[in-house]
Amino acid sequence: MNHPLLRTAAGVAMLAAVALLAGLGLGAATGWAVLALGALALLANHVASLAALIRWLKQPRATSLPEGRGAWDEAFSLLHRFERAAAREADRLSHALLRWRQAGEALPDGVVILDAQNRVEWCNEGAGRHFGLDLGTDVGRPVINLVRQPEFVAYVEAEDYAHAIPLRSEHSGGLSLSVQVIPYGEAQKLLLSRDITRLEKVETTRRDFVANVSHELRTPLTVLAGFLETVRELKLDPQRTRDYMNLMAEQARRMQRIVEDLLALSNLESSPEPSLEERVNVQSLLARVMADAEALSGGRHHITLDAAEGFDIAGADDEIASAFGNLASNAVRYTPEGGTVRLIWRASDGGAEFTVEDTGVGIEPQHIARLTERFYRVDRGRSRETGGTGLGLAIVKHALMRHQATLDIQSEPGKGSRFTARIPARRVLPVAARTQDAATA
Ligand code: ADP
Question: Which whole number is the average pLDDT over 191-205?
């Protein structure tokens, strides 16, 4: 009896039975009157429920679904269930849409959705950064009216989207972009932009580096080849031959130094970061650095070492030795005879520092920021004369960086320079532990 149609039929049958009984007992007219009144009441109930349904359909809200009577009760409750399922589905879809939008927003690349006429339908923050697009004001506008660079307009209009094009952004300080249109769906398009500024810089550095290495090696090689030719072709007396041989040996040594420094740099780049467990015995390392500096100076400079005791460095001995050694040898090489070079190792606020002070030629301020670039030299001739490769400070910077240490350079032309390697506290070890290590070993 639960089916609404059965319930309606039962109601009608009951009304007919009551009307029949009334007709039999009280006369046919009464029976018909009862039937008519009953049918009217049933109809009124249906009309009222129908009106409530129409009212609700005009403004459907889950909470305000009307209550139905009789067969309508069932219909309304089914409608209610359907409405709740639809609301849940709509909720799920809007959540999914929100998640997609959030994912699109989070992309570091620029994303713009274009319609068939290349009008902006949606864009993310990346597109804002790259093209200056704004979701609030630019939706519905043709993208070529918003990004007007001729190469971009030509790319969009040519409709050949097999490749990305390079584009310099007119926003965010002129980033280098790679821009590509990807057609999808029914004539819609995705416009993607990627920031390739860093990539481009790495590529330029790589190209410059290869060009520099080739140039640096070619010069001694040309000289060497020239001398060889001379010795082979001309009949030289033994003294001249020896002189030429010495000059050739000098060029070969120069090439050797360049190759060794290149290998040192490449090792620094490719080996894992020095561990915190290894101990660099700074006192003995500084004694070696001092001895090398004195040997290089050959008594032409006054060199002092002022090393505080009590702390070592956690890291790789050969890397720290190469960093400190290069700073000391530079000070000797760029200080004229009679000058002073001071090597100082001491505790500092942030950990410890190794300073090399000289009274040498000094450096003009505009060069200082570039000194650690590979092959950068202030004075090529002077660097070469003293056996420089132009890679020393690049090695120093790299070796220090791998120990989270920094290099500070202060200099005054004609007066001298101060190079300070700052070692952070986490890489400074007390010497008491060294003695303990040795005792337990
Ligand atoms: P190089 O082999 O030419 O010395 P480096 O990388 O060690 O290469 O140094 C780069 C440049 O920095 C040097 O060519 C020199 O011009 C300058 N320089 C380095 N150390 C000093 C110093 N102590 N005094 C003056 N100039 C220096």
Answer: 93
C-alpha closest to that of 407 among 415, 398, 253: 398
Atom 23 of ligand 1: nearest residue by CA position:
331
Q: What is the pTM of this model?
A: 0.70
Find the domain containing 58 and state its range: 4-87
For position 134, which CATH number holds? Answer: 3.30.450.20
Whether residue 317 is found in the same domain as residue 365? yes
Pocket test for ligand 1, best of 377, 386, 395 (most atoms within 8 A of CB): 377
Residue 95 belongs to a domain = no
| pLDDT, tens digit, 9 for 90 and up, residues 389-422 | 999 999 999 999 999 999 999 999 999 999 999 9
Give the closest residue (by CA) to ligand 1 atom 3: 390
Region for 67 from its dihedrals, namely left if φ exceeds 0, alpha if ψ lies in -120 to 50, beta otherwise: beta
**Contact, 49 vs 68, CB < 8 A?**
yes
Which of 330, 378, 400, 407 is the best mutation target for the ligand 1 pocket, counting ligand atoms within 8 Å of the beta carbon and taking the most? 330
Measured in Å, residue 292 CA sits from the centre of ligand 1 at 17
Q: Are residues 284 and 431 in the same domain?
A: yes
Query: pLDDT tens digits for 256-270?
Result: 999 999 999 999 999
Q: Do strands 176-184 and 165-168 pair parallel, antiparallel, or not at all (unpaired)?
A: antiparallel
Decide which of 163 and 66 is more confident: 163
The answer to whether the CB of 412 is under 6 A from ligand 1 is: no
